[in-house]
Amino acid sequence: MSHLSSPPPKHKGEHKGHGLPRGSERGSSSRDKDRSVTVSSSGPMPAGGKGSRTNCSPSTPQKVPNRLINEKSPYLLQHAYNPVDWYPWGQEAFDKARKENKPIFLSVGYSTCHWCHMMEEESFQNEEIGRLLSEDFVSVKVDREERPDVDKVYMTFVQATSSGGGWPMNVWLTPNLQPFVGGTYFPPEDGLTRVGFRTVLLRIREQWKQNKNTLLENSQRVTAALLARSEISMGDRQLPPSGATMNSRCFQQLDEGYDEEYGGFAEAPKFPTPVILSFLFSYWLSHRLTQDGSRAQQMALHTLKMMANGGIRDHVGQGFHRYSTDRQWHIPHFEKMLYDQAQLAVAYSQAFQISGDEFYSDVARGILQYVARNLSHRSGGFCSAEDADSPPERGMQPKEGAFYVWTVKEVQQLLSEPVPGATEPLTSGQLLMKHYGLTEAGNISPSQDPKGELHGRNVLTVRYSLELTAARFGLDVEAVRTLLNTGLEKLFQARKHRPRPHLDSKMLASWNGLMVSGFAVTGAVLGLERLINYATNGAKFLKRHMFDMASGRLMRTCYAGSGGTVEHSNPPCWGFLEDYAFVVRGLLDLYEASQESSWLEWALRLQDAQDRLFWDSRGGGYFCSEAELGAGLPLRLKDDQDGAEPSANSVSAHNLLRLHGFTGHKDWMDKCVSLLTAFSERLRRVPVALPEMVRALSAHQQTLKQVLILANGDPSSFLSRQLPFLSTLRRLEDRATAYVCENQACSIPITEPCELRKLLHQ
């Protein structure tokens, strides 16, 4: 295969390919990258190069909308006034391509993607480029969050034929939907060593006319190779690999890539990757008395602390940005994703459970405070994301990070009151600037701000401990804590007057399932009923607005309408594997937090639907999409990487184990074994790519303890009907009574918490 370009230097939104789970490799469902890496081809395309963000002069956007104006997706609506004859993904576009014998230009992105915005402004608003796309191609626009199956299939092609991938993703297809050229971000015009989007279009148009048969043959050959390479199946294997061995190997691979000073598992850019932190906590739990166990705990806790102190955390409004562009967690890519908040809330609450340090519980509460304030919908659902870009002032062009950064002058004006008792003249603004590292020149390196948009501005990042800041000015630690919190609140109130970043008000079943888990787990750990209530409302939203009672199927998306209403596309977008897996996990977490058996009952029903729609009865494991929904796509994949979000198969393995524990249904244990066996080769080769699945494998091969607490002793309860042996258990002296059970054999009854703790630690 030939390449249209060579890899450019690394910059915001990119990462080097390696074994650690980062989310954008192998077409996973994260947003870890949103700019060009390479342009690849399966046919004899001329060589060229990727361009920088060269300015072009697009004409004033047409006022007449194209057909995307009828879509619900915020991302598609952002392109509704392009001078491009856009089609949404669907049969109408495919039929046109076949009838007119034209290649399909497929462009995939999402509404809060910075480089998607850039390409829309530079190229898709350009009249000449619009004519080329409309006359010589059938142009199709896809929101990757609505159609993760389309994104995964063609990202697999781009990554297999180049050194990486990212968004926007641009792929040229035959009328039969087989890819033959792919890339990511293109500038509009050529640079000295780089090829622009207009030139790429002209070359592909010419190749389609002159060498179409060769392109088709190469496309078929590449598709066949991808099909063989992406197959995940049990084959002749009967059992999965050793959990202890995979556990140890995964830990060693993480240990080798660990950053001792700043935490995390790469140089830069750095991503939160909660699946890694969850694995490390589980590894510590099963190796508490070993040096490696202590090491795993230290790695996870230090990473979480450094992240929380860094600029990747929004110290003013709480919540976490998508990733850090540097090793120190200092300068983030500023978009905020729902799935990050959901998983990090769980990670920080687990850190509090393990360490007892309220620093972590405070961070978890802050994350959920942000979600409740900024991402919650009146219906009980949760919106997808907030953009990285926003106008510095009303009427100005959006700039990345404008909402979040500060000048020294702004802080001095807002926090000018003197601090009593300090050893030198000091205002509360000077105290805050010292603690959070603000400087007159700004604390953002020019290399992290190539356009100079953030010159003289600062990202808040904790530079000193409270104790050191207090000692520096001769103040009491608690006084400093109060002064800093008061200062942050004033900045928060002042920031309300800035134009807010765009809110992607699309609501996804999968991410809402993760968020139900986030609120339920944190609420249970911290003993906060109000957080569990948020989880309950989220689950009610999913059942009311994203579940079809007649078919028993989940819907993938719904949208915030006017006046707090919820709207759906017509026809509805049905759920993918990740929607079922993440919602089932959320319901199980909510059941454990609330003890409301209705959530367990619904989880069982959804698991039955997932098995019916996605299970591979021949090869084991779950396909990412329904066979009917993905009809026409050249590949039907099983996601094999835990990245920014866990693989749905990894989560499903955990769900099957938990459901077997709740019901005793042998079929779910059998499916779990088949799933883990199907992924054996991937687990053996790169266990660090599937840390969440390694956790499930370890849990499956260990004898798990169940803690049963009889609060009301009702033998007719739902759980008692599922597990008949529970009917033999009784409460003692009309008190809440606990039993610790293994393989449906239970301990003597326990009524004292200290006795239960002692038994669990044996």
UniProtKB/TrEMBL annotation:
InterPro entries: 6-hairpin_glycosidase_sf, 6hp_glycosidase-like_sf, Ssp411, Ssp411-like_TRX, Thioredoxin-like_sf. GO terms for biological process: carbohydrate metabolic process; cell differentiation; spermatogenesis. Pfam families: Thioredox_DsbH (PF03190). GO terms for cellular component: extracellular region. SUPFAM superfamilies: Six-hairpin glycosidases, Thioredoxin-like. Residues 52-63 have a biased composition (Polar residues). The keyword Secreted applies. This is Spermatogenesis-associated protein 20. It comes from Panthera pardus. The gene is SPATA20.
